[in-house]
Design brief:
Elements lengths: L2 H13 L11 E2 L3 E2 L1 H11 L17 H4 L4 H9 E4 L8 E6 L2 E10 L2 E6 L3 E6 L14 E7 L6 H5 L4
Antiparallel strand pairs: 1-2, 3-8, 4-5, 4-8, 5-6, 6-7
Length: about 160
């Protein structure tokens, strides 16, 4: 399977989670999931992660409000590399809420993304909509990351959506 096919598989899998309710720490399609577990589930289902390979353990739903440690970012950086535009399907957009990066979403077709959000569940959004911005309109986006295995053929990736 080539990179474009795997990216399409990621997109189709995350779309199958739409309307799943939000539940912190959960990873059950149709029942409950949070933003981090959603990304883990999609990458596991598509075979990019082995089940249990990325296991952040228990975390409080408010961990990001009381600590500055970049726990979420560290887990993403174990498997992904920060990239510049153009962003590709399957890339992970990371946002800062509270004191550190604490929210992730999958890019479907930039600027469209899918993520699990408290009170909304798994939804489609645009990367710059109010939900993902500060009160002053400034974006909370702190970086976009790509599965490291996709970077083995960088030229192919950068030309996929031209």
């Amino acid at each position: 399977m080539n990179i474009a096919e795997k990216q399409n598989e990621l997109v189709q899998e995350i779309k199958s989670w739409l309307n799943t309710p939000y539940h912190s720490g959960a990873k059950i399609k149709g029942t409950g999931v949070d933003c981090g577990q959603l990304l883990i589930a999609v990458y596991e289902k598509t075979g990019l992660l082995q089940p249990g390979e990325c296991n952040p353990g228990y975390y409080s739903p408010e961990w990001h409000l009381h600590r500055s440690e970049e726990k979420y970012l560290k887990w993403v950086e174990k498997f992904c590399v920060k990239v510049n535009p153009p962003y590709q399907p399957g890339d992970i957009a990371l946002f800062q809420f509270g004191r550190c990066i604490s929210h992730g979403a999958m890019i479907i077709d930039y600027p469209l993304l899918i993520h699990a959000y408290i009170g909304y569940g798994v939804i489609e959004s645009t990367i710059n909509e109010a939900l993902l911005c500060r009160k002053n309109g400034e974006s909370r986006l702190k970086g976009v990351y790509r599965w490291a295995g996709f970077l083995a053929d960088t030229q192919h990736i950068s030309n996929m959506n031209v």
